[in-house]
Amino acid sequence: GAVVSQHPSRVICKSGTSVKIECRSLDFQATTMFWYRQFPKQSLMLMATSNEGSKATYEQGVEKDKFLINHASLTLSTLTVTSAHPEDSSFYICSARGWGEAGELFFGEGSRLTVL
Amino acid sequence: SQQGEEDPQALSIQEGENATMNCSYKTSINNLQWYRQNSGRGLVHLILIRSNEREKHSGRLRVTLDTSKKSSSLLITASRAADTASYFCATDGTDKLIFGTGTRLQVFP
Q1: Whether A102 and B31 lie within 8 Å, measured CB to CB
Q2: Which residues 6+ apart lie within 8 Å of B28 measured at CB?
Q3: For residues A22 and B9, what is the distance between their CA atoms, to the nearest angstrom?
């Protein structure tokens, strides 16, 4: 099946620094990737839809300047949390649509961000 | 934006028993999907049911969809301890998946 790799799996940073999370589709090309955020024991909240070669589409309430998304190639999308604060600490998960059953998403293993 | 509401929020059963989770949603959909998430991990796709389908099976999984009631159910038969995880429904209506609140399933050996 399709594989999505996410890196890093865990990151701890100081308040005010920026953190980049990478999401790669390893064995297929993904024109669209999705970034989700998940708080402990809660559901996934869609942050933005990342489109290769164009600007990301952000969900209502998500700060574009805070969460920078770049989808420069068909296999890589990045999420940069800029000037991170403790409230940005969360589990960030990326996903991409594969070429299997229509609509199925393949997920990365997630990145746990802790901002001190 | 949160689309689906799932119940129960948490479910504890013994191995061998069946587990049923329900999902309700608000708007029209193209399909509805169920995913599983082990603690601290990514999600794994379980099954997809299209809006024109009413029931679908995959191994020990049985999914139903009632578009008139905007609801779906996931049944796991003959549960195993390894089925312990969180289960989420996700609705696909506008080219993006919106996830439900999830059900935490605990299966005791």
Answers
A1: yes
A2: B51, B67, B93
A3: 32
Listed in sequence order, the residues at least 6 apart from B68 whose beta carbon sits closer than 8 Å to its beta carbon are: none
Q: Is B52 on the interface with A (CB under 8 A)?
A: no
Interface test with B, best of A3, A34, A44 (most B CBs within 10 A): A44
Asked if the Cβ–Cβ distance from B98 to A46 is below 8 Å, we say: yes
Average pLDDT over residues A64-83: 93
Spell out which residues of chain B touch residue A93, defining contact as CB-CB under 8 Å.
Answer: 42-43
pLDDT computed for residue A99 by the predictor: 59
Cβ atoms of residues B36 and B87 within 8 Å: yes
